[in-house]
Amino acid sequence: MERSSFWEATSAAPEYPALKEDTAFDAVVVGAGFTGITAALLLAESGAKVAVVEADRIGSGTSGRSTVKVTCQHTLKLHTLGDEKARAYYAANKSGFDFVCGLVERNGIGCDFERLPAYVYARGDECLPDIEKEAEFYSKLGIDGGVTEKTGLPFGVKCALVMRDQAQFHPLKYLYALARRFTACGGSIFERTKAQRFERGADCAVITKNATLRSRDVIFATNYPMTDFPGLFFLKLHQEREYAICAKADGLDIGGMYISAQKPANSMRMYRSGDENRLILVGYGHRTAKEDDDFSGYDRLKELLRRDFKTADPDPDYAWSAQDCRTLDGIPYVGPVYAEPPGVYVAAGYEKWGVTNSAAAAMMISDAIAGTGHIDRHIRKAFDPLRFTPAASAKNFLIHTGNVAGAFTAGNILIPEGSYGDIKPGEGAVMRVGAKAQAVYRDTDGKIHAFEAHCTHMRCPLEYNAAEKSFDCPCHGSRFGTDGEVLNGPANEPLCRITERPER
Ligand SMILES: Cc1cc2nc3c(=O)[nH]c(=O)nc-3n(C[C@H](O)[C@H](O)[C@H](O)COP(=O)(O)OP(=O)(O)OC[C@H]3O[C@@H](n4cnc5c(N)ncnc54)[C@H](O)[C@@H]3O)c2cc1C
To answer: Is the minimum distance from the CB of 489 to ligand 1 under 6 angstroms?
Structure first.
């Protein structure tokens, strides 16, 4: 089973240059996923001179590793938000949904787009009350859908909640098409250009290795905002990782997109293009660096594939993973983090429902910067990134800060003593070598790579993730490769390499 994203393997990435010289723009967007590319396109269409800087390649973050259901059915979220917030959340996402579908259908964007119903299903009784409560919100909000016992799944369900006329597509084909539209409007994209630092003065400066970009507005579309202040995101966001597999499934048609009501949720969809007919299973999410045991999400998904989808190929040929941020109250943080110009904007916390949320976020940011009027002001208020909503957030705030404090303290105390000799080729560990906590990996040639074992974001002790061969931070979800480089933020600096060798 290849550890790579099916989406990357089935699309041809356009190439954009790295940034080489200082330039001024009206707006700079950091990050080229769904949020960044959509916001950049909307601003460029409104007449602004816009640049996008991307640390890696377009779509190389979570957007290119998603299940890519284009839907306003976000499992069973609406009833948990209460009337007013559910209304605002649904309205924003419906605008995002209409925007994405409209763009694809009006312009004939070739991204394997299909209209399909979305379902949340329950196999047992325990989730039925929540399904009923969510169905009441469908009635209140005029959503086309309701409770049903009929699904296209090859196994029986107790009941399901359907939302009709939703969609799915290929994320990278969509993103590449948007990027081309953006550059056709005069926009600039710089790939392999990491924003290393950011300064806010009379204007904004985004500093990269080779050059600095200046602009009136900066949009952090980096999934986890690059700047924790003044939004205090380190207190309000955590990340969850999830796994995906893709298998050939000739002749199988499940007639929609599905997610289980039970947790951890399992999500499923088909992908059809030409002769290709495939099943994609996604699930077994957990807080980053908090996997229960060594039986990885991939193994569990394979088990699910073999048990429940007997006509699909039992040996998936693609497997990948990704992570997304969660907020304290279930609504993303979107908008300006300063009241006065120069403007700094963030968009984060889509809780694995980022296709419609990112389009809504891009519209809200474009409204705030260019007065484009896509989304009502009172709806934008519900997404205010500076909000703290004690009633809705207190419990999750305590859980999050408790987790961070626990990980920080226990991680530091419990790092085991070890020696490089304990590490076999292709394996890694976090251990105390002499007086120092070290993140250690031995490559397949036997060479040791050792780093300080603390996250460069807020100095939390790291954990080794054997399934993905990475060093992960249990506090805020940063991840580092076995070469010490950042795989996922909020950390922006690589791990500090240790070159002394006390022993072998
Ligand atoms: C397993 C999984 C399945 C999902 N399935 C669905 C689904 O079916 N439907 C749905 O609606 N949503 C889904 N989501 C959620 C959705 O994919 C995300 O919310 C969305 O892709 C986030 O987009 P983004 O642009 O904000 O972030 P990203 O796509 O992560 O983009 C951020 C970009 O910023 C870049 N970057 C970071 N730091 C810097 C820096 N310092 N300088 C320059 N660039 C930087 C990164 O390289 C990256 O390309 C899923 C998420 C996961 C994890």
So the answer is: yes
